[in-house]
Design goal:
The protein is built from 24 helices and 22 strands. The chain is of the alpha+beta class. The strands form eight sheets. It has a five-stranded mixed β-sheet with strand order 2-1-3-15-16, covered by helices on one side. Strands 5-4-20-19-18 form a five-stranded antiparallel β-sheet, with helices on both faces. It has a two-stranded antiparallel sheet with strand order 6-13. Helix 1 packs antiparallel against helix 4, helix 10 packs across helix 11 and helix 17 crosses helix 22.
């Protein structure tokens, strides 16, 4: 017994009766004659005709959803994403065999009848009565096209899809009216073209071009006779006749199509027989949908681009409007991602941190003066398996990143120095900077209420040998904690707040950095690598901060017409004077020349500057640095904030203790070196900073001379448990430490642990 199409629930007798009513109604409408009163059926039909006349005559055809292609800055393909994998093609680019095959099997009288085939209805009715069921339908290609339009309009809404496909007289009547309109307005060739582009061929392929690619790795215009017959046969039931899953059933169906083509004179009996003997000849191309397929580890950047599109008002006033445009697709998105920089980022991460390591690493490169994101990657690849994650460690949570970002340690100190310089403090400002001290009793905030050290909390430097007095240059090179807390007490927190606001520095959750000394000096607050790279880029561009941007241009094809879409632009504004920026560049050049960032310094005479950062318990290590034409931030640490980087092996290298200079530093160095290869080597505008009197440098015996400042992660947790709430939520997305995120944040009470 023939298999029935889905959508039933009715018995064979009920289906036959229903089909009879619709068929008679269709014929009556087409002929323009009155229906006789056949009891209840006649009354129902009469009412239906009245409803038919009341239907609007204009069928609003939605643009067909198509694949979207995401490109790098040079036009290379990063990935394709789609709601429905479809590429619309003109009829001239569809094989004549395909055109004939679909007409022969679905509507052999297509060119002879109007919107409704009365002869076909009567033939189908007779056959169905003989079989005591619905063995044959009578919908024309035009009617099927209209039904597909309803389905396309429904999108991914299950309720709307059900309404668009339900077997009711009301829907059939609506379908008939629109079919008449389509026949009058489009003509046969355009209807056939539209049908072949809209219909579903199984295996995620919508339209004949996608189907040709999926099953035969060829184009629609190159389909041979047996290939075309196979695809035409699939349409009736894509799951039943799927050649990948049931070759025998698909072959049988293909041969039926070939026989029908011979019967209607499209091919000779000999041609059909030869094609029937041919193997299916599948050359299956697996669907490649989504950012997970992106090249050069750009999956996270790809998802970032998607998030930008779905969140930026430039693409639609509401999230629903933006989602509709994204799902419709047909977009070609040219991004800022530079292939050379992206490859260098991924190569460096791969060399220094293994996917299977207990900790992860993330790196982002940004172009000063433009805000363009040139590279973005991480050691845990995009995915849902062991040692994979769907979280982008480089960005804020609203863009797919961690809940709060990661504590930055001493990489925050240059913001304090820039604020002090803007307030008029000299570049050789000196403070006592003892090895250990209490936080100041009070520190002025932006409000009238100062911060107070109610718990008499203290902080200290990395080593007892680190004790002042220090001038700013040496304090920055050695990353002296007590120096910068004293500087903060001197200028107050409001200048730092103003500076970080101008530099776009916000926590990973989007909130402002709390006005607490540990956050305002020692980096106890979580930030993202993109935020840090963009902020440091302002130093490189002599004080001009540019908001990060990922999209260069977008074109969209709608109804065969290409149009350009407006895209978000980077906004650049002055964050500090050129003199302040030049002074910071001079200070941070010393960090890589003779300070804690020596292992990160670039070779070849290229000007570079940067800052290390390591948090207490060594749960996070950072290096953020730049040249005049490229800024980059590298984070290494525990995504869960549970792994302490002591006595740990990372990338095959054993570390008794991890520092910002010895682990993220080399990652930054190699990523920057590759990204800058063959490019200009501009110079900083360095300033003269008077040196302090000659004195023996403090040396704690640590070859890295790195601080261990940060937030003291015990204090980070303690702050959560006292004021921040005991959320403790985690969400696992990968193996080891690949994607579980600590749901907590400092409470803003200024404790920050024993050393801030």
């Amino acid at each position: 017994m023939p298999k029935k199409r889905s959508g039933g629930g009715l018995s064979s007798t009920q289906q036959a009766a229903k089909f009879l009513g619709v068929s008679v109604l269709a014929g009556a409408v087409l002929a323009g004659i009155a229906l006789p009163a056949f009891g209840a059926l006649g009354l129902a039909a009469k009412g239906s005709v009245e409803s038919f006349d009341e239907l609007p005559a204009n069928l609003k055809t939605p643009p067909l959803s198509q694949r979207t292609t995401i490109l790098d800055s040079e036009g290379g393909q990063i990935a394709t994403v789609y709601s429905r994998d479809r590429t619309v093609v003109d009829l001239k680019n569809i094989s004549p065999y395909m055109q004939k095959a679909i007409v022969a099997i679905e509507d052999s009288r297509f060119y002879e009848h109007g919107a409704v085939d009365l002869k076909g209805i009567l033939r189908a009715l007779n056959k169905n009565v003989q079989s005591s069921g619905v063995a044959q339908g009578a919908s024309t290609l035009t009617q099927q096209y209209v039904k597909n339009v309803f389905v396309e309009e429904a999108g991914d809404d299950p309720t709307k899809v059900q309404q668009a496909t339900q077997q009711t007289i009301g829907r059939k009547i609506k379908e008939l009216k629109y079919a008449i309109q389509v026949e009058e307005e489009l003509g046969k060739k355009k209807i056939l073209e539209n049908y072949l582009n809209i219909t579903f061929f199984g295996e995620q392929a919508y339209g004949v071009e996608a189907a040709a690619q999926r099953y035969f790795s060829t184009h629609a215009k190159a389909l041979t006779l047996p290939q075309a017959a196979l695809l035409a046969g699939i349409v009736q039931s894509p799951s039943r006749y799927d050649p990948i899953n049931d070759e025998a059933e698909a072959t049988k169906r293909r041969n039926t199509v070939l026989q029908r083509m011979a019967e209607v004179g499209d091919v000779t009996e000999a041609e059909a027989a030869k094609a029937q003997k041919a193997p299916l000849g599948l050359k299956v191309k697996q669907p490649k949908n989504g950012c997970i397929t992106a090249v050069q580890g750009a999956s996270f950047f790809c998802k970032y681009v998607e998030r930008v599109f779905l969140s930026d008002p430039v693409f639609g006033k509401t999230k629903e409007e933006r989602a509709k445009v994204w799902n419709q697709g047909g977009l070609t998105i040219r991004t800022t991602l530079e292939p050379q920089s992206q490859k260098s980022v991924q190569d460096s991460l791969k060399d220094h941190v293994y996917q299977s390591d207990k900790v992860a690493a993330a790196a982002t490169l940004v172009e000063p003066g433009t805000g363009k994101i040139l590279g973005m990657g991480q050691s845990k690849p995009y995915g849902y398996g062991k040692n994979e994650t769907e979280y982008n460690y480089s960005v804020n949570s609203s863009m797919g990143g961690s809940n709060y970002g990661f504590p930055t340690g001493s990489t925050f100190k240059p913001f304090v120095a820039a604020a002090a310089l803007e307030e008029g403090r000299p570049a050789n400002q000196s403070y006592p900077a003892p090895y250990q001290m209490s936080y100041p009793a009070t520190v002025q905030t932006c409000s009238s209420k100062p911060w107070t050290n109610q718990g008499n909390d203290t902080l200290e430097n990395e080593s007892a040998s680190e004790k002042g007095p220090y001038q700013l240059k040496k304090a920055m090179e050695l990353s002296v904690n007590t120096y910068f807390v004293q500087m903060l007490a001197d200028i107050g927190m409001c200048p730092v707040v103003k500076m970080t606001d101008k530099l776009g520095v916000v926590q990973g959750n989007g909130d402002k950095v709390p006005e607490v000394p540990s956050s305002m000096t020692l980096g106890s607050t979580g930030l993202s690598p993109l935020t840090m790279a963009s902020a440091y880029a302002a130093f490189a561009s002599r004080g001009m901060y540019c908001t990060p941007v990922a999209i260069e241009s977008i074109t969209q094809i709608v109804g065969g017409t290409k149009k350009s879409l407006e895209v978000p632009k980077s906004t650049c504004s002055r964050a500090m004077s050129e003199k302040t920026a030049d002074t910071i560049n001079t200070l941070l050049s010393g960090v890589v020349d003779s300070g804690t960032g020596r292992q990160a310094g670039l070779s070849g005479g290229r000007d570079n500057a940067g800052k290390t950062g390591t948090t207490d318990s060594r749960k996070n290590a950072w290096f953020v640095g730049y040249t005049p034409n490229l800024s980059g931030a590298v984070w290494v640490g525990s995504a869960t904030q549970k792994v302490e980087m002591n006595n740990i092996t990372i990338g095959g290298v054993y570390h008794s203790q991890v520092y910002g200079g010895d682990t993220p530093g080399p990652i930054w160095r190699d990523a920057m070196t590759g990204a800058l290869e063959g490019k200009d080597s501009p110079s900083f505008n360095l300033v003269h900073i008077p040196n302090p009197p000659a004195a023996k440098d403090p040396d704690d015996g640590n070859s890295d001379d790195e601080d261990d400042d940060g937030d003291n992660d015990d204090g980070f947790l303690s702050g959560l448990l006292t004021n921040g709430g005991t959320t403790g939520d985690t969400s696992s997305t990968g193996g080891n430490d690949g994607g579980t995120f600590f749901q907590g944040q400092t409470n803003g009470n200024g404790n920050g642990g024993g050393r801030g």
